[in-house]
Amino acid sequence: MKKSTAILIFAAAVCLSSCGHDIADFKPVSEPERASSQEVIDIPESDTDDSADTPADAPDDVPAEPENGETPDEQSGEDEKPEEKESKENKDSSSKESSSSKVLIKTGVWWATSESDDFYYEVQKDGGGMMLKQEDGLGWAVQYKQKKPEKITMAFANGITQKADIEYISDDKIKVSLDDGSVETWTYQGDMKIKDFKFYSTQQLINMASLYHQEKYGNWPNYVESKIDEQGWVIVEFYDDKQQNVIGFYAIDRQNGKGNDGDGNDIDFSGYAD
Fold first, then answer.
1. What is the pLDDT of residue 30?
2. Which of 272, 232, 238 is nearest to 252 (CA)?
3. Could you tell me which residues come within 8 angstroms of residue 14 by beta carbon, excluding any fewer than 6 positions away?
4. CB–CB of 252/271 below 8 Å?
5. Nearest-angstrom CA–CA distance, 107 and 134
């Protein structure tokens, strides 16, 4: 995606001296260690009783098979007793429920965005998984429990438990409204594990852009601002020592490290990764 020069001019005209950050605050981080599943807070199983009651008038002895090979129902043509039919349906329903996945949303990796944060969630078939922060690559193990398609509970290894309502926008996008009032949009990334899903954290991208900027212009930027635009690109802006003028503007794809500058020139920042 090309970023126009107009964006750079507009950004340069805005005074951000009150929100600038010292570039020294941003350090490249190593790959996060996968949290142990033993840290996960267990969520109680469904209250649904999987066992079906046996009819009170069920005979103790099973009748012998008739000589003609027909069962009593086939021979007489009579329907099952109502209580026997209900018991059979309960057993079939319980069997289907117990064999179904604990999580109804698609398993794999989801990218979640909100007004203030964005994360990666890994959802596994057994209800386990991970949550990683895009900003620094740190995260926690998660235990998911979804009793109904529109309801989900997430227990994180850091001790936080969140309940949420789910709205299915499409097959690859859902809206998750958490009980703390925040709303996340989850976009499906693929049927994979977090360990197989590569991305650069925001701090890594800032360091990569800084190295590129120093090589091209001969100076190391001291102040930086970063954000994520509507298309998911990480925007890195460097400011002068007065934190007033933009001296570098870069839009980068965190999945592959490729992007462009404020003039629309294509840049591959992946060569500046640790």
1. 36
2. 232
3. none
4. no
5. 20
Within 13 Å and on the Cβ side, how many CA atoms surround 193? 6
Side-chain half-sphere CA neighbours of 112 within 13 A: 22
Q: What are the tens digits of pLDDT across the range 191-219?
A: 988 877 777 888 899 999 999 999 999 98
Strand intervals (E) in the chain: 21-22, 108-113, 118-123, 128-133, 139-148, 151-156, 161-170, 173-178, 183-190, 223-228, 234-239, 246-252, 258-261, 266-268
User: In whole angstroms, what is the distance from residue 176 CA to residue 113 CA?
Assistant: 10
**Residue 199: enclosing H or E segment and its boundaries?**
none
User: What is the bridge-based pairing of β-strands 223-228 and 234-239?
Assistant: antiparallel
- Positions of the chain with pLDDT under 50: 1-63, 66, 70-77, 93-101
In whole angstroms, what is the distance from residue 55 CA to residue 58 CA? 5
The rounded distance, in Å, linking the Cα atoms of 113 and 183 is 8
Tell me the two tokens of residue 213: 């900027």
**In the chain, which residue ranges form alpha helices assigned H by DSSP?**
5-13, 72-76, 82-99, 202-217
pLDDT the model gives residue 47:
36
Distance CA 171, CA 149 (A): 13
